[in-house]
Amino acid sequence: MLWKLTETDGKHNTRYRSDGAMPHSDPRLLHHEHVFPKKKMIDDLQRASSSDEIDRILATAVGCVVTRDEHTRLSQYDHEVGWQRYRSAGIGVVDRETGERVA
Q1: 3-class secondary-structure state, position 7
Q2: I need a labelling partner for 85 at 20 to 30 A (CA). Which of 33, 50, 60, 64 fits?
Q3: Do 75 and 26 meet the contact criterion of CB atoms below 8 Å apart?
Q4: Model confidence, pTM
């Protein structure tokens, strides 16, 4: 379920996209990332005690399209969570709905 939430608009047509992935449309060059680790979301959901808490956790089911090279770079920062992981890896990300930078 969490995987599908991050692919609501399509695997490579996410709201968030890295600067490096922006000009590419070839899926062989791209990788769908989970901004917040699925394992953490699952653990948090299992401990959730209210519907508000569940809604907050599900709101973190966010996908971001990056290049394959950026995906490799991000894996070095798996100890970090959320957009901080992208900042630490030096990967800029744009919210395609608002045009604002999130990382």
Answers
A1: coil
A2: 50
A3: no
A4: 0.89
